[in-house]
């Protein structure tokens, strides 16, 4: 009851590296979320990918007139926009995956600190598979 | 539909199905459920991107029958990856991690097929 957590300066010193790591991870996650939001808003104007469906796979070829120079330029910019947005979306997905992996690594390092009932209770015995990676 | 929505919708559906199944299989701690969610955030968008990229080459999604082998192949890969991640992160037995991964992904794959057909 009378125990105290110790001098404040000691706690601050020991917390600093972990806070920096935590800050870095949060920045990574925030970047991924921002990139995802940007991809959503920027791709709202134009569809990106049309997966082959039964309807469009059996559509007969249709004659399309030769586009004018203006139309061709518009299509070129559209294609560039699509590519840019696709790349952005891919970066967002990569960022989310990377951030999730960082989170998983953090969970793994933290260990079962909150004494999970199911996970800890189902650990195999030493004569079996420990389930741990090296 | 935009690419972002194409990726976010299946992820949301997957989490909505797999998290309750994880709870039903006695993963009830915040740590365990966070791990399940993060594992899905890793695998689900990657699989969907791969599916979209593959659809540009082969019309695998033209019908349910033609999609089944591809979906099955993707699911096997996802089950294995999630099994390894869950075993490593939650420090549970291989048997339990595999059962958890198999149960969660089977349910979400079936739900995805039903959702797709209807």
Instruction: Report the strand count of chain A.
Output: 0
The total of helices of chain B stands at 4
What share of the residues of chain B does DSSP label as strand, in percent? under 5%
Q: What's the order of the H and E elements of chain A?
A: HHHH
How would the global form of chain B be characterised?
elongated
Largest sheet of chain B: none
Indicate the structural class of chain A: mainly alpha
Number of strands of chain B: 0
Report on this structure:
The complex is a heterodimer of chains A (134) and B (118). Chain A has 134 residues and is mainly alpha-helical. Chain A has a domain at 31-46 and 69-109. Chain A is 65% helix and 0% strand. The longest helix of chain A is centred in the last third of the chain and has 42 residues, at 69-110. The radius of gyration of chain A is 26 Å and the shape is elongated. Residues 1-15, 44-64 and 114-134 of chain A have low confidence and may be disordered. In chain B, 84% of the residues lie in helices and 0% in strands. Chain B has 4 helices and no strands. The two termini of chain B are 17 Å apart. The model of chain B has no long low-confidence stretch (mean pLDDT 89). The chains are: A mainly alpha (134), B mainly alpha (118). Chains A and B meet through α1, α3 and α4 of A and α1, α2, α3 and α4 of B.
């Amino acid at each position: 009851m009378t125990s105290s957590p110790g001098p404040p300066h000691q706690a601050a010193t020991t917390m600093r590296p972990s806070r920096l790591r935590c800050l870095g991870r949060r920045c990574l996650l925030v970047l991924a979320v921002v990139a995802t939001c940007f991809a959503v808003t920027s791709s709202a104007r134009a569809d990106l990918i049309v997966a082959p469906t039964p309807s469009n796979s059996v559509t007969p070829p249709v004659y399309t007139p030769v586009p004018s120079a203006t139309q061709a330029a518009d299509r070129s910019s559209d294609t560039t926009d699509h590519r840019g947005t696709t790349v952005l979306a891919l970066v967002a997905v990569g960022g989310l995956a990377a951030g999730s992996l960082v989170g998983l690594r953090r969970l793994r390092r933290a260990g079962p600190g909150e004494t999970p009932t199911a996970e800890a209770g189902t650990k195999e015995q030493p004569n079996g598979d420990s389930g741990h990676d090296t | 539909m935009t690419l972002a929505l194409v990726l976010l919708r299946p992820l949301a559906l997957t989490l909505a199905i797999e998290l309750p199944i994880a709870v039903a299989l006695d993963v009830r701690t915040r740590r365990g459920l966070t791990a399940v969610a993060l594992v899905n955030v890793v695998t689900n968008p990657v699989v969907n991107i791969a599916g979209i990229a593959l659809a540009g080459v082969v019309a695998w999604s033209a019908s349910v029958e033609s999609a089944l082998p591809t979906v099955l192949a993707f699911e096997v890969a996802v089950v294995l990856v999630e099994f390894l991640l869950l075993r490593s992160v939650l420090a549970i037995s291989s048997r339990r991690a595999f059962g958890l991964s198999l149960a969660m992904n089977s349910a979400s794959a079936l739900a995805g097929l039903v959702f797709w057909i209807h």
